[in-house]
């Protein structure tokens, strides 16, 4: 899997490249619009991540040229200035998704995975850790084949944690992915939601072992227990 | 304008009145002349020969008298010619030389008579008229005339004043209309000066200059906050990305907790930056909307599930009509509803109630957010939509939030052609009404 990142801010490019690489993705970086377009036209990238404000040629114009040249690779736009107008125009020009700055690499990774899954079809729709199984398509959750009744938020939260089992997710990260970035970071909605999921797991597994699958990391956040 | 009309009419009526009084005095002076000429005519035998009654009628008509008792005729022949007298005869107190007319005012049983005596070769002829009656007659005529003339003058001058005012007011009205049309979203409008009078051209030019300066400073202010927000984005993105990376790399939970707390602050900053950017776009009238048919009922229900999770000592109840659809931007409407719900949750007093109702109104969807609160004075209520206003500091210390939520919520509602208003309520209650257009054809 190879990703093309076109982003002129070195500080941003650095952590995106290393973050995506740490998650097993190969990233090619360009800091110029024209060069980015050249690379995108030549290379065979699985996903293209495009910043909108670029020297040389702006992201929207790169996107336009790519679609005109028949490059169908999914594009994620990174927006900053005037994000609403850019979002509307970007989606009209054929962008597949967009992320507003500031964003989490984990979130970018999740979006890339979603696009890749869409390209790959239904094969990767099951997430399973231990006895806990989630079906992304039917949105059905089960613990040792016993079905769990989860709300949309609970399902999304669980899926987010399970996808990168072993990794710590801060409340802010979870809040942003599950609730969207306009939610007040000081609310304890994440903790309440985790408590409810644990409660539902304990109902199905009175030993309480399943509930410990979601670990609290002090006051930092949460982590899904890695497979033994 | 009414005052001007009244003044003009009064002056006009006064002028007419003065004119008529001089006519009146002139008429009275002419009475003597007429009496003399009648007396002279009466002295002529051929005239007398036509019959007294007829003559009397004729003189009465000429002197404009109503009754024969107001007129006296008398003829005294010099020798033995027969006397001709009307039933009442003028007194004989003075003698006029032949060929001349002598005039006198005589009081006779309480009535003042004006008499003229003419001495002809045939005899002495006298004609006397009731002076009061003559004057009264003329005054009556004047009064009748004034009664018609004054209202007519009034009406005419009012009409004139109205026409004149309408004509003068036309450029002023045009200016007023254009001033009304100029809102913050249309500061680029200018009033055309062509075809106006010189003084109005100057006024309009001054107004246009003022508008241009206003537009420039407004654009500068809104571009400044947009640029500031944008400039903040890059460092915030790097900060957040680095913190995320550091959390992932660390195995020390204490460090992770610390970094997580820093992330919260970055998220808070990003939230403020984002809101400021949206507000500056809304101020400039450039809030770009990606319009879709939005199921408000579903969106509200979802957000209320979240809100319910956050409540500890408050109760939340809702009454949401199903399938309330509005044309709008999903992202912004979610922000709008979320801001209103978090606001209600944040300011709801402990043990209080939050009620959310949504229903279809004619051509609109109305969502009402009601929460009990600590008593809020009306000055505090008036500032609800002020940016960075967070309520009375004494009891909002523990309340999170940046005071941009309601202001942004209202801008979003307005950008969608709706509005957000604070409804009157008891001091310990807050009721917000959000109205949005309902989707036609659904």
Describe it for me?
- The complex is a heterodimer of chains A (228) and B (442).
- Chain A is built from 8 helices and 12 strands.
- Chain A has 228 residues and is α/β, with parallel strands linked by helices.
- Chain A has 2 domains: 2-120, Rossmann fold; 126-224, Winged helix-like DNA-binding domain superfamily/Winged helix DNA-binding domain (Arc Repressor Mutant, subunit A).
- Chain A has a 5-stranded parallel β-sheet, sandwiched between helices. In chain A, strands 6-7-8-9 form a 4-stranded antiparallel β-sheet, covered by helices on one side. A 3-stranded antiparallel β-sheet of chain A has the order 10-12-11.
- In chain A, helix 1 (10-22) crosses helix 5.
- The model of chain A has no long low-confidence stretch (mean pLDDT 88).
- Chain B folds into 3 domains: 2-142, Beta-Lactamase (2-Layer Sandwich), CATH 3.30.450; 198-283, Orthogonal Bundle (Helix Hairpins); 291-437, 2-Layer Sandwich (Heat Shock Protein 90).
- Chain B has 11 helices and 12 strands.
- Chain B has helices at residues 2-42, 45-49, 52-63, 131-181, 198-249, 253-283, 296-310, 330-347, 378-382, 393-396, 405-415; strands at 71-77, 84-85, 101-108, 111-119, 123-130, 291-295, 315-320, 325-329, 353-361, 364-372, 419-423, 429-437.
- A 5-stranded antiparallel β-sheet of chain B has the order 2-1-5-4-3. A 5-stranded mixed β-sheet of chain B has the order 7-9-10-12-11, with helices on one face. A two-stranded antiparallel ribbon of chain B has the order 6-8.
- Chain B is rod-shaped.
- The chains are: A alpha/beta (228), B alpha+beta (442).
- Chains A and B meet through helix 1, helix 4, helix 7 and helix 8 of A and helix 5, helix 6, helix 7 and helix 8 of B.
Q: Indicate the CATH architecture of the largest domain in chain B.
A: 2-Layer Sandwich
Number of domains of chain B: 3
Give the class-level CATH name of the largest domain in chain A. Alpha Beta
Helix content of chain B: 55-70%
Structure classification of chain B = alpha+beta
Per DSSP E runs of 2 or more residues, the count of β-strands of chain B stands at 12
User: Which fold name fills CATH's third level, the topology of the largest domain in chain A?
Assistant: Rossmann fold
- So what's the overall shape of chain B? rod-shaped
The chain-level mean pLDDT of chain B equals 81
């Amino acid at each position: 899997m190879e990703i093309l990142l076109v982003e002129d801010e070195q500080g941003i490019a650095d952590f995106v490249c290393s973050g995506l690489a740490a998650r097993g993705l190969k990233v090619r970086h360009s800091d110029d619009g024209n060069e980015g377009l050249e690379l995108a036209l030549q290379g065979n990238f699985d996903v293209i991540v495009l910043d909108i404000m670029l020297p040389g040629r702006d992201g929207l114009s790169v996107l336009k040229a790519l679609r005109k040249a028949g490059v169908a690779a999914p594009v994620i736009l990174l927006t900053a200035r005037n994000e609403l107008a850019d979002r509307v125009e970007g989606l009209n020009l054929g962008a597949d998704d967009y992320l507003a700055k500031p964003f989490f690499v984990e979130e970018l990774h999740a979006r890339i995975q979603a696009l890749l899954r869409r390209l790959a079809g239904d094969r990767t729709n099951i997430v399973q850790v231990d006895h806990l199984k989630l079906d992304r398509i039917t949105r059905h959750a089960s613990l040792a084949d016993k079905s769990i009744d989860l709300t949309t938020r609970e399902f999304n939260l669980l899926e987010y944690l399970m996808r990168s089992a072993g990794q710590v997710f801060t409340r802010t990260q979870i809040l942003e992915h599950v609730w969207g970035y306009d939610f007040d970071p000081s609310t304890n909605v994440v903790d309440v939601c985790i408590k409810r999921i644990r409660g539902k797991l304990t109902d199905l597994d009175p030993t309480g072992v399943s509930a410990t699958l979601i670990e609290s990391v002090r006051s930092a956040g949460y982590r899904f227990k890695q497979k033994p | 304008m009414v005052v001007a009309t009244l003044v003009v009419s009064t002056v006009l009526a006064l002028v007419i009145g003065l004119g008529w009084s001089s006519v009146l005095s002139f008429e009275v002076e002419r009475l003597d002349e007429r009496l003399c000429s009648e007396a002279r005519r009466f002295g002529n035998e051929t005239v007398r020969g036509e019959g007294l009654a007829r003559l009397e009628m004729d003189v009465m008509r000429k002197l404009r008298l109503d009754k024969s008792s107001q007129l006296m005729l008398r003829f005294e022949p010099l020798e033995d010619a027969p006397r001709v007298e009307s039933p009442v005869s003028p007194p004989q107190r003075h003698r006029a030389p032949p060929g001349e007319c002598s005039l006198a005012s005589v009081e006779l049983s309480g009535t003042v008579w004006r008499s003229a005596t003419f001495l002809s070769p045939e005899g002495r002829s006298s004609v006397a008229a009731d002076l009061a009656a003559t004057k009264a007659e003329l005054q009556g005529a004047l009064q009748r005339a004034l009664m018609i003339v004054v209202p007519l003058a009034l009406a005419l001058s009012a009409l004139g004043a109205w026409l004149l005012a309408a004509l003068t007011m036309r450029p002023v009205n045009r200016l007023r209309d254009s001033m009304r049309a100029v809102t913050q979203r249309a500061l680029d409008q200018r009033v055309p000066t062509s075809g106006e009078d010189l003084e109005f051209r100057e006024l309009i030019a001054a107004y246009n200059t003022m508008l241009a300066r206003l537009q420039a400073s407004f654009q500068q202010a809104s571009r400044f906050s947009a640029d500031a927000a944008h400039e903040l984005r890059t460092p915030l993105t790097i900060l957040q990305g680095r913190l995320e990376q550091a959390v992932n790399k660390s195995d020390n939970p204490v460090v992770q907790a610390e970094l997580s707390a820093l992330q919260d602050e970055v998220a808070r900053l990003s939230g403020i930056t984002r809101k400021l950017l949206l507000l500056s776009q809304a101020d400039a009238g450039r809030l770009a909307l990606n319009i879709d048919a939005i199921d408000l009922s579903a969106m509200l229900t979802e957000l209320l599930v979240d809100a319910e999770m956050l409540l500890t000592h408050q109760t939340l109840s809702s009454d949401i009509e199903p399938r309330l659809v509005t044309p709008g931007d999903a992202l912004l409407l979610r922000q709008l509803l979320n801001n209103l719900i978090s606001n209600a949750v944040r300011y709801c007093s402990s043990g209080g109630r939050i009620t959310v109702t949504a229903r279809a109104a004619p051509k609109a969807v109305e969502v009402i957010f009601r929460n009990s609160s600590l008593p809020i004075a009306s000055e505090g209520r008036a500032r609800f939509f002020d940016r960075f206003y967070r309520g009375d500091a004494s009891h909002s210390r523990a309340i999170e939030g940046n005071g941009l939520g309601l202001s942004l919520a209202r801008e979003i509602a307005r950008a969608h052609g709706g509005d957000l208003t604070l409804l009157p309520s008891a001091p310990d209650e807050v009721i917000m009404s959000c109205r949005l257009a309902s989707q036609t054809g659904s």
